[in-house]
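lol ok so funny story. i was supposed to be doing the assay writeup but got distracted and ended up predicting the structure for this chain instead. priorities right. anyway since i did it might as well share w the group, maybe its usefull for someone
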Amino acid sequence: MLADTYGRVATDLRVSLTDRCNLRCTYCMPEEGLQWLAKPDLLTDDEIVRLVDIAVRLLGITEVRFTGGEPLLRPGLPGIVEAVAALEPRPRISLTTNGIGLGRTAAALRTAGLDRVNVSLDTLRPEVFHTLTRRNRHHDVLAGLHAAREAGLTPVKVNSVLMPGLNEDEAPDLLAWAIEHDYELRFIEQMPLDAQHGWRREGMITAGDILASLRTRFRLEPEGEEQRGSAPAERWIVDGGPHRVGVIASVTRPFCAACDRTRLTADGQVRTCLFATEETDLRAALRADADDAHLAEIWRGAMWGKKAGSGLDDPTFLQPERPMSAIGG
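and the output, tada:
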């Protein structure tokens, strides 16, 4: 198992397939983009599948989430999904995406074995989408969401980040829209993972702000800790049900004590936490012909050293050098 010294066991693997993205969200990267990883530094499709196989077969991983950057930019994605779906025991397989390419890929990914998707959409207003992402692709995201639902990649979850002065007033509208289209909406507090290191705690839209805004239009009842388990989102029953809305309060209500995640970057580094400042290199051992047992032992060692928490509540907190796009959501 991937256990740590605090008794937590990782069963959920987040795999970044690329650091590249076709949007330039203001809370993630600058308008000109970033210095992308060189192709030789990236894990190959076969290397990704081998490491996921080790995680599933030897380390107890039961859920695999593919992330980026934007994972739909990875040409080999359908083949990777198909190979992971064929593993024994078969893990549950999901994808976090900006949704732009889902209109043309959702059906093929479902056929390959993908179980569900999380799609990022912060606004219902095309002009605000352009301001936030610096791209005119709002209609493509909506089309991708529709295609995902039609392909059976359900429940389709929508991730939204609210930003001061841009979309902070949209929480009730987003929830009404999600209910109408049968999507599960989750609000995420803005996290200090932007490449520009411009995040400031002061002025951020908190979970409390979001819930207060939603309650101007909806009746919310907490779902309860027993239903939440190790999930990052606190969920609320909307107007008596059956619809629910989630809030991921990484900054103001950390959930580190129940964390069950381990992360693999696109260049083969194990990360124990989104906010970790250390990484453990699996790629070097993999390319030095290490056997599966040795790779598993390196991974166990990395997770054994996982810290108690993210450190976000510490005044001396230092933002990781890598931005979200290079870590994987």
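The longest strand covers residues 92-97. The mean pLDDT is 90.
back to the writeup now i swear
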